[in-house]
TrEMBL record:
Organism listed in the record: freshwater metagenome
The protein, known as: Unannotated protein
InterPro entries (UniProt xref): Cell_div_SepF (IPR023052), Cell_div_SepF/SepF-rel (IPR007561), SepF-like_sf (IPR038594)
Biological-process GO terms, alphabetical: division septum assembly
Listed Gene3D superfamilies: SepF-like protein
């Protein structure tokens, strides 16, 4: 393989025969994994031939604290960056698009849909012009709304 590569590079004029050595063209070996030695506690319990690898416990990142919900009333599409910054920081965002023109409203909803998809969140329509963007650590339940619609005591007729 090394000879074929050397011949090809010489033929193309990229190298000269004297300048390329086998050591330069030879692939470098992959680094070896070194297993940690068993701890002193295991040395007395395990046989000398049997080593038990301890699982490495990684500290879990604390979940971001949900301390606020951001409500925005954008008038122009250029305010999409503000929506994205608040959502990326982990805050749920309520977008009230009632002050926007129809064409810009559609663009902003498309932007918000991509933003939510890229960060594994959810987007829900609250009213025809109000949307809730929820990050993945926030669960939005619509069970209360469905249960209230089925309750008979609200029906006054």
């Amino acid at each position: 393989m090394v000879n074929a590569l050397r011949k090809m590079t010489n033929y193309l004029g990229l190298t000269e025969d004297d300048l390329v050595s086998d050591a330069q063209l030879a692939p470098t070996p992959a680094p070896r994994r070194i297993m940690p030695k068993p701890s002193a506690e295991l040395a007395g319990t395990a046989s000398p031939r049997l080593s038990v690898a301890q699982p490495t416990l990684m500290a879990a990142e604390p979940a971001p604290v949900l301390d606020r919900i951001v409500t925005l009333h954008p008038r122009f599409y250029s305010e999409a960056r503000t929506i994205g910054e608040h959502f990326r920081s982990g805050s749920p965002v309520i977008m009230n698009l009632s002050d926007m023109e129809e064409s810009e409203r559609k663009r902003l909803v498309d932007f918000a849909s991509g933003l939510v998809f890229g960060h594994s969140g959810t987007i829900e329509r609250v009213t025809p012009k109000v949307f809730l963007l929820s990050p993945p650590n926030v669960m939005v339940s619509t069970e209360v709304k469905a249960a209230a619609a089925d309750a008979s005591f609200f029906n006054q007729s």
